[in-house]
Amino acid sequence: MNEMAPLAAYLPFNRGCLKNGFEPAKRGAVAGAPKGRWLIMQEQSVVVGTDGHEISLPEGERPAGFDAATGEPACLGHCGDEAFWVLALPKDAPLPPGYHAETIVPMRGTKLPDDLLTLGGMAAQLLWWESTSGFCPRCGDATTRIVGEWGKQCPRCAYEHYPHLHPCTITMIRDTPNRRVLLARKAEWAPGRYALVAGFVDNGESLEGCVRREVMEEVGVEVGEIRYVGSQNWPFPSQLMCGFVAEYAGGDIAVDTTELEDARWFPADELPIRPSRHSIAGYIIANFSRL
Ligand SMILES: [Zn+2]
Q1: How confident is the model at residue 199 (pLDDT cuts 50, 70, 90)?
Q2: Confidence band (pLDDT; 50, 70, 90) for 181?
Q3: Which alpha helices (DSSP H) does the chain contain, by range?
Q4: pLDDT at 51
Q5: How far does the centroid of ligand 1 lie from the alpha carbon of residue 43, in Å?
Q6: Whole-angstrom Cα distance, residue 83 to residue 290?
Q7: 280 and 208 share one domain
Q8: Count of Cβ atoms closer than 10 Å to residue 49 Cβ
């Protein structure tokens, strides 16, 4: 086991990945005229310039040629002196010459560098929140923004809500004495690719309780010691993935075929195709499977 693993805090989609630091914008605060670098989102893709060899974001004042973008630009925040602005472009809107839309989804083979992936993920979450918070979930009235916050308030019933993050656990099960690791796959994944057991935390449940329950439900084994190894903000659309390593404590594998296609033990030195290096699943397997 590698006790000196790099911190998961630096994985893409976590703000810690941005080398110059990131100061998120508070909505309602004065952000100045829209000028800086532009995260123009087209569904789960970022519009990037393709001039030369480097992928780059449009820069300067609101870029021309994106008139189909809906709504006002929103300030995402600042890296140093540089402001980042977000616009949503409809799915089928054509792009001006020199631009293309690059996916932020790791499993679709994104070519974005880690910093743009992280900024794109935050932009996607901002737009997701805007698209899901326009009406009060309690009484249905149109909401208004709470000044200086991302939150929304209902003028009729005073209900307040804030951007939602959904906690999930993601777990690698290890049988250390036998130097093997339990990995699982879903039917929709690329052939031969195996990853970890994951699921949403239930009401009234601790993270550790969620690990034990999800492991038992999905692969049918018991786990003993559980250790937290890091987390990743996952903007598809809004999960907080909490990563764990759990020691096998007994039982035979019984796959829940409503969730998984397969789960099996792999010798620690003969692992199958792994998840993307961009995901915490890839991080955990890369750093905690050497037994
Ligand atoms: Zn209401």
Answers
A1: very high
A2: very high
A3: 114-132, 207-219, 280-288
A4: 72
A5: 29
A6: 42
A7: yes
A8: 16
- The verdict on residue 5 lying in a domain is no
Cα of 138 from ligand 1 centre, angstroms = 5
Query: Which pTM value belongs to this model?
Result: 0.92
- How far apart are the CA of 126 and the centre of ligand 1, in A? 22
Surrounding ion ligand 1 within 5 Å at CB are 136, 138-139, 141, 154, 156-157, 159
The residue type of 147 is V
Indicate whether 157 belongs to any domain: yes
Question: For a pLDDT cut of 70, what percent of the chain falls above it?
Answer: 96
Question: What's the whole-number mean pLDDT along residues 97-110?
Answer: 92
pLDDT of residue 29 exceeding 80, the answer is no
How far is ligand 1, taken at its centre, from the CA of residue 160, in Å?
Answer: 8
Average pLDDT over residues 230-259: 97
Which of 291 and 135 is assigned the larger pLDDT? 135
Instruction: Find the domain containing 157 and state its range.
Output: 136-163
Q: Are residues 214 and 171 in the same domain?
A: yes
> 34 CA to middle of ligand 1, Å?
32
pLDDT above 80: residue 196 = yes
Task: Tell me, yes or no, whether 101 and 17 share the same domain.
Answer: yes
The answer to whether residue 1 sits within a structural domain is no
Q: How confident is the model at residue 1 (pLDDT cuts 50, 70, 90)?
A: very low
Which CATH number fits the domain that encloses residue 16? Answer: 3.90.79
Distance 136 CA to ligand 1 centre (A): 5
Are residues 222 and 128 located together in one domain of the fold? no
3-state secondary structure 125-184: HHHHHHHHCCECCCCCCECEECCCCCCEECCCCCCEECCCCEEEEEEEEEEHHHCEEEEE
**Ligand 1 centroid to residue 143 C-alpha, Å:** 8
Handedness of CA 182, 214, 7, 117 (dihedral sign): positive
